[in-house]
Structure formats: C-alpha cells, structure tokens
Amino acid sequence: MDFQKTCDDIVSAFGTTCDLRTIDLNIGECKSKFLYIDGYIDTLLFEENILKPLKNLEGTKEVTLSLLNETTMMTTPVEQIDGVEKAVDLIASGEIILVAENSPVMFKYSEKKYTQRAISEPPVSTVLRGPREGFVEDLKTNMFLIRRRLATPKLTFELLDAGRYTRTKIAVCFIDGIAEKRTVDRIKRQIKSIDIDGIVESSYIARFLEENKLSLFSQVGSSEKPDIIVGKMLEGRVAIIVDGSPSVLTLPFLLYENFQMSEDYYIKSYRASMLRFVRLFAFSFSLLLPAVYVALQEHQYQLFPLKFLLSSLGSIYAIPLSATLEMLLIMAIFEILNETSIRMPRYVSMALSVVGAIVLGEAAVSAGLFSISAVIIVAVSTVGIYCVPDEINSSNVLRFVFVGIAGVLGIVGVILAVVALIAYICSVNSYGTSFMSPYAPALLHDWQDGVFKAQIEEFEERPLSLPTQNRTRQRPAHKKVRQDEEDK
Amino acid sequence: MNNKLNDRIYPEQFLLLAFISIMTFKVVMLAQYLVSEAGNEAYIAMTVMISIEIMMCALVYGIISYGSLPRLDLPKGIRYVLALLLFVTSMAKCALLASEGVSYVSTTIYDNVRWSYVCLALMLVCCYLAYKGGKVIARTAQILFWLMALSFAFHVVFAKTDLQFVNLLPLEFSADIAVACDKYLVWFGDYSCLLFLSVSKSPNAKGKRLAVWTALAIIGTFVCAVGLMVIFVCVFGDSGAIVGNAFLNVSSLNKIAFMIGSMDLPTVCSWVVMCTIRLSLLLYAGKECLKIFFGEKWWLSAVCALTAYLLIVYGIGNLKTGYSIATSALRYFVYFTDFIAVIALYIFVHVKYKKANKPKALPSPQNPALKQISPPSQGEE
C-alpha cells in the first residue's frame, strides 16, 4: 500500500470539505496519518488514549494490529481496514482511520462523541402512570433503552443500512425464540432491497415495509416509548430502530393497536377497558358525526327527533350555504387553523387559537355564515379524533370523504361508505395476519386484550393474531402460590 | 391478493353469513306476501320453508367442507352446468331482491330520489365486496354483526308487548300454506351462493363447542325468522296483507322509536348493512361462476354488478314488475338450482369423496396440498 497515495485518495474523496481533519505523526520510525471528521469524535480521549501512547513509541519499524491494540487504551478494539473506499465510508460515518507507512492495511479507531438530546418524555405520548423515558435520535442509546428492559441473551439486534448517501443504520430488533423467523427474514429482505438516496427518518422505512402502499391507515406501528416497544416485542413483534429517528417501528401491526395505550397496562383493567371503549367510540363518533349531521339535514331530516329539529331549524334557516358546503368549509378552516398552530412557535399558535376561536365561534356565526350547530359538531368531532392520535391523518381525510358522500347520498350513502371502508380494512393484511384481527376473523382468545382488557395475570398465551414461535406467555405458578397461601 | 385464500372462512363466519342470507329479505315484503296468500297461517308457511332452508344450509356446509365449488373435484361438464345455473339464479335473485331493497330505501328513507342512483351506489359497494372475495365479505359481516346485534337488542329491550296472540288462530293447515310456499319460492333457498366458500378449522371452537354454537345459530335463525312472522301476524292479523316493508317499519313495534326520530334509524342501518352483505354474496357467486368460464379476471365482479344494475333499472323497473317476475315460472328455475341441484351435488360429492376416502378436508391453513405459504398466525384463515 502506497502511504502517500492512499492518504491523497482519501482526502480527495472528500473534496473541498472543511471538516476533514488529518494529523501527521511518527509511530516509531513509521510515518503515519490520522484522518477523521471534526466534531464527530471525543478529542480529549483521542489525545489521551491514542495519540499520546503512539507518540511515545520508539523503535517501531512496522505498525501492526497487535501493536496498536497493546499500545492504545480502547474499549473498542482496533480493526484492520482494506481499501480506500471503505476507509472513506468509515470516516464519513465518524470513525478515525490510521494510515501508516510500511503497513499493507489501514486501521480503524472508534472514539465517537457528539452532542445528542437527553432522554426525556416524548411529547406525543405522555402518561400519568408508567415510565417516562422516550427514545432519542441516537441508535445506540435506543438499543440500550430496549436492552435495559430485556436482560436476555435472546434479545437480538441485527444491523443493516440503507440509503446510498445517508448510509442510515437500521437495527432489526427481536426476541429470538418469540418472534417468528419468517417475519424477521421478510423484514430484513425488505430493508435490504431498499435502494434510495437517503433515509432521514423511520417513516421512510415504514413506507417501504407497508404491504398496501395506497392504504389510508398506517400499517406499521410506531412508538417513541421503550416500554411500549418491549411490550410489543414480548408479544412476538419485530422492532425496527432507525438511526436519527426517535420513532421505533413495529411489525406486524394490527388496527386495534391504535386503541391500546401503554397506560392501559399500568392501571386497573376495568378502567383500561372503559378508556379503550371511549377511544373506539370517540373515533367512530368523530368520523361519522359531521357526515350524519349533513345527511340528516340534507336528505333525512325526518330522522331528527322533533324537539332537536325545531331547535336546530332556528339556527340553520338563514344560513346561505347548503349543509354540505357549510360543513366542508368549517372543517377546512379547522384544518387550516390546526396546521398553522402546529407549525408556528408556541406563543404565535396561542394567538392563532384565540383568533380562530373568535372568528369561528363568534364572528362567523354572528354574521350568519355558519350555524352554531355545525360549528359545535365539527368541534366535537375534532376533539374526538385526537383520542386516537395515531390515526389522525386517516380520520381527517375520511371525515371529508364521508361528508361529501353524505351530501350526495344521505344516510344510506354513509352506511354504504362505512361498509365499503370496513370491507377495505378487512382486506388488508400485515405480515401474515389480518389487519382487523382479532375481530375479523374473530379470535376470542385475543379479545382479552381488545376493546375490553383482562387482568395481566390472565394473559397466559401470546395473541393468536400474531405469528410467534412460542405461545406460552405466563405459567400459572402464581395461581398455585396464591392457592397455597389461602390454604395456609 | 392470493385468490386461493379468498374463499376461505371459518365455521362461525359461515353461520353468520347463512343467518344473514336467510334473514335479510324475509323481513321486507315477504311477510306481506305470505299473509296475502296464507292469511293468519302465514307463519306456518314460514316455519316450513325456514326448516327446509336450514336443512339445505347443512347440506351446503357438508359440500363446502370438502372445498368450495370451483375447487371440488367435479367432471368438467357438471361444473359448467352448475356454474351456468348458479350464475343465472344469482343474477336473477340479486336483481329481484336488490329491487326490493332499493325500493324500500328510495321510498321510505328519501323524500325525492331516483332509485337508479340508490341502486348504483348499492351495486358499487356490492361490486367492491364481491371483488374482494368471500373471505372479506365474511370478515365484514363479522364486524358489522355488532351493529345488527345492537339494533336487535334495542328492539327487544324497548319492544311493545301487547301482541294479539288470538290472531294466530284458528289453525286449519289449509292448502293456502302450500300455495304460499310455492308462490314465493324465490324468497327462499338463500344459501346456494355459499357454495363458493370453503371452510377451515375454527381457532375459537372445536368439537362440542362448535356443535353448541351451530345449534344456537340454527335455533337463533329459526326463532328470528318464525318469531318475527308470528309477531307480524299477532300485530296485524289478516290486514298484514297491506303492510309493506314489514319489519323495516318497526317504529310501531317499539316504545321509544318516535323519541329518537320519526324513523327507525338502528333498523335502517342494520338492514341496509345486511342487504349489502347479502347482495355482495350473490354477486360474489356470480363472479365465481364466470371465473369458471373465463378464468381469473379483475373485471368479473364489475360485469356481474353491471348486469344486476341493468336488470334492476331496465328489466324490473318497479316493485310490481319485480313481484310478477318473482312469482312467474322463473321460480321453478330458482327452485331447481337452490334445492334439487344442491341436493344432487351433495350426494355426488359425498359419494365421490367417500369412495376416494379423501379426508373431509376443511382445508386447514397448514395444508401443503394447497401449495400456499402457510399463514403463521390464526389471524389469517
């Protein structure tokens, strides 16, 4: 290996970038050069543990792997590297490369250190009870957060990468002996087949892993909380951690997971069941309420109870718009306000909320543009949608579609649309299981963790809905202990 | 979508589909028609026909437990003849029954709507379900079952109980019962479309438990169909002959229906749902018949839906014409397909498979003979 040519090749591969650092030093009698990206390494440790010991070496005529490992104090052993291309890739991903004269290979040191966000509670999944740790953007930290909860050698992380430019590291994470091998292999195959210029967030990977690309509903689970991911892995799912993203993906994914929250497992089952029922009701209610209101007003006003009809007539008789147009407009304005308030800085979004509330709630109604009942219905519906935050995108779109159908075809149109939607969801599969499982097909065993949640001690087997190598989840030893205690 | 798996359902799904198939159009115009022919003994006609239907359903289950009709080992000629018979029957029934449903929807629920629009919307959704296949129809029915159950519970809880049981008497077992059974044959035999499904082992119930469920489903279907007819006769007596859309106007039989609106929303919702599933099954049967002739094509269900739509809008046109067609000699064709052909097929299949000593397959997901990737979980049939 020509020392000077190798160094020049590496440097020229990085072009004119200013953050490539090179350090020339003599290791004994050998000319050597360190190459690394500035800001990616722990400079203090680099100096103390690598540079100083190597500078002090005397009489060395050839730099070898064993010599480096003996001389420098590293927790990660030094590795040999062949080829300029690989060396360039490693430098780009934050490693330190040592090129030495008279040595046929290069050497890789790992001394990465960069600033990262501290582990904190994810803003999208706050809990009253339960762990408050959330994933961060660093892959290793996220792997550690899972490992800390699963102290078993069966926990496996398989590292892959995707993205021609980003070389994003992706860890496929599963419990060997629980997750089904075929599912793991299929996920790995899918990830390996990705040929894209860059992966900047886990949702990129999610889109590639979805079976039905045009689906309205997300077909890949995601969470920012390690306790949720571990719970899902214990049921036989596979997790996918993407470097640079705090959202960890899970597969297979079932629709009813949207109605399960981590807190359900930390509180009493009767309360959890009630909350799940509330979520399901809120979701269906918010999806259909605007459409049913439009259908009844446009086509089937005889379905209104008489008293309600009389009171609502007072508010709608002077509205210049048709019920459908009125509803669509209010929903569109809500969407605009929602989008703006999310993107704006907090102090601006608060002001926007006030303006929106006044404009919508007061001025538009007073001006006779919208009826108060339509505004209330959209408000209730919008609040309801946020009960199931993971399906906000689909439910927002569906609300518009349903309102449109209701305006044209009335209540029968809404019913037919619901039937078609359910049929559509029932036809979706997620990695070998039905998306609507355990309700279609009905798997009574899994209903214990469905809309109604049973006590944890009753979960003796893993869900039948999910493929797994090992069904047994809990052995009934605790029942015997309790029986013995009672006998005493 | 793997088409080999598209027709595969569980026994409980079969029971539900059979229930929907049998019940849906028994509660619309049939009650009025039976009373007009058999008077207060209409419920006996219903009892007789429902008993036969349930027995026939058992035969259909017996056939499809060896595999769906397209997968059965039948001589080519028999397969083609059966496919042709079933296609014509399915399309005719779909058009006749859909016209009844559309007529109810467009006259009762809307003030002013062209029934061709309602029909178009209904056929579009049915076409979509038929395209997706029997498995999706069964799953959809399983989800929507809860809506039907809630609606039923609503009526049971708030039912008016002042029934005039004296209307059921006197019992004379007159010849009118046989005439009624004969004349309205088209409204019975609602199970032949289920021949295009196949059954795999249930993950929920096996052996005795499944037997109990089956018994409950049979009793439930029988009680619902006959019970509703009994209620109809008790409430309206002989004047039931002028009461259209029988149980879809149940507001009169409910204590609080008027409090929640002047029309009975839960019944409308659940009945429209049942109607959609029933018609989807018929279109699915039509599509599967065409598949035997033309092979797997994505447009087959669209052809069936379009045929049914044209038949309804241009062939039938209104309820009166529909009634005339349904009670014409066409009914004997339907009778032949729904009763005679099914019995003959059962005997043929039973003898053939018994001779070949083939296991009563219930092609389980793990059956490698089906040359499909075995699904790893129970979530997938």
- CATH class division of chain B: Mainly Alpha
Q: Could you give a short account of the major beta sheet of chain A? A: 5 strands, antiparallel
The tally of domains of chain B stands at 1
Strand arrangement in the largest pleated sheet of chain B:
1-2
Overall outline of chain B: globular
> How many helical stretches of chain B?
12
Strands across the major sheet of chain A, in which order?
A: 1-2-4-5-3
Total count of strands of chain B:
2
The fold-level CATH name of chain B is: Amino acid/polyamine transporter I
Explain how this protein is built.
The complex is a heterodimer of chains A (488) and B (381). With 488 residues, chain A is an alpha+beta fold. Chain A folds into three domains: 3-109, no CATH class; 139-253, no CATH class; 269-430, no CATH class. In chain A, 46% of the residues lie in helices and 12% in strands. Chain A contains 15 helices and twelve strands. In chain A, a hairpin with a 5-residue loop joins strand 9 (238-242) and strand 10 (248-251). In chain A, helix 1 (3-13) packs across helix 4, helix 9 (269-298) runs antiparallel to helix 13 (372-385) and helix 11 runs antiparallel to helix 12. Chain A is elongated. The model of chain A has no long low-confidence stretch (mean pLDDT 88). Chain B has a single domain (3-370), classed as Up-down Bundle (Amino acid/polyamine transporter I), CATH 1.20.1740. In chain B, 63% of the residues lie in helices and 1% in strands. Chain B has helices at 11-23, 30-38, 42-64, 76-109, 115-132, 134-157, 175-183, 208-236, 265-294, 300-316, 319-326, 330-355; strands at residues 8-9, 198-199. In chain B, helix 4 runs antiparallel to helix 5 (115-132) and helix 4 crosses helix 10 (300-316). The longest helix of chain B is centred in the N-terminal third of the chain and has 34 residues, at 76-109. Chain B starts with 7 loop residues before the first strand and ends in a 26-residue tail after the last helix. Chains A and B meet through helix 14 and strand 12 of A and helix 5, helix 6 and helix 9 of B.
